[in-house]
Amino acid sequence: MSVACGVECVVVLGCLRWAWKRCTYIGSYDSESWTAATADEFDSVPRVCRLILAVYEPDLLCPKYAPAGGYRLNPDWVVKRVAYDHTLGHAPPYLIYADHDNREIVMAIRGLNLLSESDYKLLLDNRLGKQMFDGGYVHYGLLKSATWVLNAESETLRRLWEESGRCYKMVFTGHSLGSGVAALLSVIVVNHGDRLGGIPRSLVKCYAVAPARCMSLNLAVKYADVINSVILQDDFLPRTPTPLEDIFKSVFCLPCLLFLVCLRDTFIPEGRKLRDPRRLYAPGRVYHIVERKFCRCGRFPPEVRTAIPVDGRFEHIVLSCNATSDHAIIWIEREAEKALGNLKEQDAETVTTPPKVQKFERILTLEKEHKDALERAVSLNIPHAATSAEEEPPEEGSSTFKEPREEHAGLEAQTDKSFCKNARNNWNEAVEKLFHKSESGKLLLKRDDSATASGSGSTTDR
């Protein structure tokens, strides 16, 4: 009897300890060991947030929902606006903006519309491990959407970049659902820059605001020099390993889902999570905006921390009443603007070296952090992790890019097997196996072809 009572006490104490640790865990703990961001590297974040908000505006000449200070853009520089009527459900609405002041060509993609059936279809078009891409796994529906956007706008983006003297940056940005589309679009452009006139990797940037988990860990680290994720304190989406399609199926019971996921992940070892190649993560370098502290009321002056985390990459669910409000683009823009102002004030007070020298030193630091993260991923045996972010040279006997030819739909399974055997194939081989060009020259996923073929009555081996 006494033994049973002792065991029961131990179990109760263990449960109480777990509940205390989970309920007192706050979002700022995820980045407490990270370094502070600088004003130069964070300068673009409030600006792209305003451009994302501008996608929601029906008329930029007479704005109804402008943030404090307005959108601060020139309506004459808005090259194109695309609504749901034009995307036909293939992608969320977006706009293309030629920012001549900052020498950037920006594509901003809006977030999930809870009233749009097509947005849900993008989210639901996936399952764990369904699509392998560039040596890792990605969200299939978001990849299809990114491919559609590139096919639709490649000529426009190419023309703008060439008219700018081939020196402007190409910036893709999005919020929530749009962040996943923007991140995968930037990966395609980096590896297939000829679609945009041969733009180099160094001129492609992506800002994923309140990012969705859309790519495996090896890809998230590999493209950290291109993709930047912006997360406001307790935002639930980057922390929730549950697939996106399951999250938004349960959007009206989200607190219950977050609690169950939190309870489940307690019993999953960290090593097991890292070794699962199908597990998706928030992409790239992470900028974490922190504005609240434990057992403190109200919001404090926001600070920005940054790193390229490998292990412990926002794996803890935060049981917070702000988990959903921190996902709102309005709050993120507001706090990012405050944080940038604080960073500029700090820089003005602590200037000890010329700004150009500071900026050059910070660039070298960012490059070193990326290299260290790649090496860390290899040391932890992350599946398909590479020691270099650049393309690997073709293997012996393999040629450069060949014009893809149409193949039987039954080869889809063989394609996945070949990727598993040699996940580090170069990009040309990846394009050859995943895409083919239509008669108009557009890239199409072969999975789409198999669906079309089966719909027309052709027989395929599944």
From TrEMBL:
Q: Which Gene3D superfamilies match?
A: alpha/beta hydrolase (3.40.50.1820)
Entry GO MF terms:
hydrolase activity
Q: Where is the composition biased (Low complexity)?
A: 451-462
Q: Which domain of life is it from?
A: Eukaryota
Keywords assigned by UniProt, alphabetized: Hydrolase
- The residues covered by the Fungal lipase-type domain are 106-242
Cite the Pfam families for this sequence.
Lipase3_N, Lipase_3
Give the region (Disordered) as residue ranges.
384-420, 439-462
Biased composition, class Basic and acidic residues, residue ranges: 402-419, 439-450
Task: Give residue ranges for domain Mono-/di-acylglycerol lipase N-terminal.
Answer: 7-71
State the name under which the record lists this protein: Calmodulin-binding heat-shock protein
